[in-house]
Amino acid sequence: MDRLHSMAVFIKVVDCGSLATASEQLNMSSQMAGKHVAFLENRLGTRLLNRTTRKQSLTEIGTLFYERCKIVLAEAEAAESIAYELSATPRGRLRINAPVTFGAYSLAPLITRYLREYPQVHVDLTLNDRFVDLIDEGYEAVIRLGALKDSSLIARSLAPYRLIACASPQYLSARGLPLVPEDLTTHECLGFTYWSNPPERGWHFTKDGQLHAVQVNGRLQVNDATALLSAALNDGGIILGAEVVLKNYLASGQLVQVLAGYEAPSRQMHILFAAHRRPTPKLRSFIDFVVAEFGHQN
């Protein structure tokens, strides 16, 4: 007989209080249920149950064995569950939320590679810059920029979201090249406006451990990074934007980095998911994909 199966029958017999009731729930004969208990007793060389025509009770050894059997079977079920999940093929629909600029320029290309890797997964990606409630709005994972507030969600840290300052060569030729952050006060600084916050007038730079906080000015405030980029490319002023968005324009010469000797601010970035249940294969594979791509670089 299978030892784990006999343990399961033994637990059921104890829980039900009789062989007859246990055998009914297990869909086996009372004789077969009794054989499983007898198998364990013969294997252990001791009696586990005291049985009379009216009732049954656990022996002292039977009580200890009963408690250990429950632990062993629970661990066996957990091991099988983990093995199944690890071997299961990711499939189904995955709802993800991310900030607009990061999602459009960085996350969307990664998702196309992820979908090639896992052809049975479908991804619904929603991009916006507002705070979304993962649980209430039905997302399985969200990517957030900035410091995290206290949360019941599980967070995996990603590499910081780096910003750089740049402008078009024509703008700099006409207005001059800022040499220190304080020079920005005489320039048109293109401002990004969040849906829930006023324009970011304070730009911060560091050099040699010293913080330079500058209150910038600008007549154009936009809530869309693509529109800000278009304004910068058309000589509208200095943009403080995501490096991942601006790097190709810097490489082509359409934009020129300013204050390159200073470190522009960066924002914390995390991928978050609910803590109340074990991640499904599709979610776990997606999180691993994101962390492998955007995790901290040593």
Automatic annotation (TrEMBL):
State the Gene Ontology BP annotations.
DNA-templated transcription
Domain (HTH lysR-type): give its ranges: 1-59
The record ties this protein, via InterPro entries, to: LysR-type_TF_proteobact-type, LysR_HTH_N, LysR_subst-bd, WH-like_DNA-bd_sf, WH_DNA-bd_sf
Q: Which UniProt keywords apply?
A: DNA-binding, Repressor, Transcription, Transcription regulation
Q: Which domain of life is it from?
A: Bacteria
Gene3D superfamilies to which the protein is assigned, alphabetical? 3.40.190.290, Winged helix-like DNA-binding domain superfamily/Winged helix DNA-binding domain
Q: Which GO terms describe its molecular function?
A: DNA-binding transcription factor activity; sequence-specific DNA binding
Record carries keyword Repressor: yes
Q: Please report which protein family the annotation says this sequence is part of.
A: Belongs to the LysR transcriptional regulatory family.
Protein's name in the database: LysR family transcriptional regulator
Q: Which organism is it from?
A: Yersinia canariae
Its taxonomic path starts at: Bacteria, Pseudomonadati, Pseudomonadota, Gammaproteobacteria, Enterobacterales
